[in-house]
Amino acid sequence: MATINDNYLKLKAGYLFPEIARRVNTFVAEHPDASIIKLGIGDVTEPLPAACRTAMIAAVDEMGDRASFKGYGPEQGYGWLREKIATHDFQARGCDISPDEIFISDGSKCDCGNILDIFGSTNTIAVTDPVYPVYVDTNVMAGHTGDANDQGEYDGLVYLPISADNDFTAEIPSTKVDLIYLCFPNNPTGATATKAHLQDWVAYARAHGSIILFDAAYEAFITDPALPHSIYEIEGARDCAIEFRSFSKNAGFTGTRCALTVVPKTLMGKAADGSDVELWKLWNRRQSTKFNGVSYIVQRGAEAVYSPKGQAQIQELVAFYMKNAHIIREQLTAAGIQVYGGTNAPYVWVKTPHGLSSWDFFDKLLHACNVVGTPGAGFGAAGEGYFRISAFNSRENVNAAMQRITETFKA
Ligand SMILES: *Cc1c(COP(=O)(O)O)cnc(C)c1O
Question: Which of 246, 256, 318 has most ligand 1 atoms within 8 Å of its beta carbon, as the pocket-test mutant?
């Protein structure tokens, strides 16, 4: 019989969201008339911007005409999209990134996992705790860890705790790690990184020959003009960082699928024989071999994000969610609940009141308010005592949920 990749058996079988669903289903079975409001999911709710839809419809028509039909496109993405991204997202912010360092893909989630293809198997890997679970699970699948303990922490990974005690920014490790996952603005905590903090990371990475895997999926939600949107705003980052970006959250592409990964040509890794190898070459080879590009139609939709209309529409979309985040912060604060995040990110990270555990607070919100959020402990041991509330919802649902919570928790 064929053998399997035993590393999959180490995975903590998708505990968080199935457990949420189980508790919600039990409650609904007992209270069939309850109107549940879900503020737990990291998915957008508002429709695709008109500029993107118009561009995709035109692209569909091009595909219907023999003269303008497109077959396989470049595996790295069309030049016209990569140029717009380089100009608008990077060069306009002073980042020295060229179009051919940008690889278009069908999602940051896949890129975060796939990037491990080009790295060796003996790297020391650091993640924050709490963390976006994809960074951890993809390393488990790749055999880069041992088993998990009772808290869900895997042997072999370096966990960098983030909490209110350190302002939700991890301390730079005192030992050498080879790969570091950073996500700013952060999912799940909504925390941001200042330029000074990223400068410390870049200095650390350059001193140790480490590589920062920087997830900027939420950069569009930054409202504070002093905060960096890209790791490449930091001098020297071209030599130590890969950046992931996505159209999922800024332009509502979670179901449409388009993202990008930046691999600077100056970025090097070490081969077994001790020589330095350009990671760009490896990623280009990996994508050319295992990927056949994103649909022409979708890339035209993504390109429209950079048109004047598209820019105005995505700004409106982001502002809509950020108004939700503002309402959540204000109402919870008024109810005497301590909140973090939610000013430069679509997530509000709540300190559970009265010393409740993450899951006890989950149950209380579900039973007393019929509101569903995400227990912080589900994102890592250091998330215990916290709770994530997402701003991705309709205004009506956010207002209704906040009214229920304030009525329940107001002294
Ligand atoms: C939503 C999200 C992404 C984007 O994933 P896609 O696959 O591009 O939809 C990436 N990183 C984090 C932390 C996210 O929350």
Answer: 246
Residue 64 Cα to ligand 1 midpoint, Å, equals: 32
Report the percent of the chain where pLDDT is more than 70: 99
- Same domain? 121 vs 268: yes
Q: What is the mean pLDDT of residues 28-51?
A: 95
Q: How far is the CA of 336 from the centre of ligand 1 (A)?
A: 31
40 lines ligand 1 (CB under 6 A): no
Q: Three-class SS of residue 393?
A: coil
Atom of ligand 1 nearest to the CA of 258: 8
For residue 132 and ligand 1, the question of a CB distance below 6 A is answered with yes
Is the residue at 213 inside a domain? Answer: yes
Buried b / exposed e along 341-372 (16+ C-beta atoms within 10 A): bbbbbbbbbbbbeeebebbebbebbbeebbbb
Last residue of a domain, one of 290, 306, 322: 306
Range of the domain at 190: 52-306
Q: What is the mean pLDDT of the chain?
A: 96
Q: Is the same domain home to 301 and 227? A: yes
> Pick the residue with more confidence: 240 or 41?
240
- Residue 145 C-alpha to ligand 1 middle, in angstroms? 23
Unique residue bearing structure tokens 């979309």: 317
